[in-house]
Design brief:
The chain is of the alpha/beta class. It is built from six helices and six strands. It has one domain (2-182): Mannitol-specific EII, Chain A. Strand 2 and strand 3 form a beta hairpin. The N and C termini lie far apart (35 Å). 37% of the residues are buried. It comes from Aerophobetes bacterium.
């Protein structure tokens, strides 16, 4: 298990480091807090991956971020079938890009109890879910968001603070502080 954890850490380091180094050269820097909405941050009790994704997808529908709940959910699940988006450290970043969307959005699920089995790279149960959606035509922006989010969750202090949060505004505040320190 220790070997898998080191491999996972190395992969996350390589991906986030390479992407940030190269993508920061292309256009504006990504500010994760600008993609967050308190109505899209859920404290959940779900114990399985698909139910957690379904609940976050439904919140996206209610907020108006998506219009077709089933097609977005199906796209996320199809992506999960390719390879798990459980990146380790108790975090999953499921995502889907579809032609229907004009901009990117992030919904967050926090599961403080046992965690959710996600077939994570390091075998850990997932307690933080960052569901990303957006336009399929803007790969560069998507990679910037993914890179910035990956770098932020590697920050153990931020990750632990998000897990200890009791409300959505607190989580947004934590990411706002992180964004301002990293700019």
């Amino acid at each position: 298990m220790a070997i898998l954890e080191r491999i996972n850490e190395t992969l996350v380091d390589l991906i986030s480091g390479f992407q940030r180094k190269n993508l920061d050269k292309v256009g504006e820097k990504v500010v994760i807090s600008s993609y967050l909405d308190p109505d899209l941050i859920l404290f959940m009790e779900e114990e399985d991956r698909d139910t957690a994704i379904k609940k976050l997808t439904h919140k996206l529908l209610l907020s108006g971020k998506i219009q077709d709940e089933e097609s977005f959910y199906s796209a996320v699940i199809q992506r999960e079938k390719i390879v798990s988006t459980g990146v380790g450290m108790g975090v999953a970043i499921p995502h889907a890009k579809l032609d229907d969307y004009k901009d990117f959005f992030i919904a967050i699920g926090v599961q403080k109890d046992k965690g959710i089995e996600w077939q994570s790279l390091d075998g850990s149960l997932v307690q933080l879910i960052f569901l990303i959606g957006g336009p399929s035509k803007d790969q560069t922006k998507y990679l910037k968001i993914l890179s910035r989010l990956t770098a932020s969750i590697k920050d153990e202090t931020l990750r632990n603070a998000v897990m200890k949060s009791t409300n959505a505004d607190e989580i947004i505040s934590l990411f706002t502080q992180y964004d301002s320190q990293e700019s």
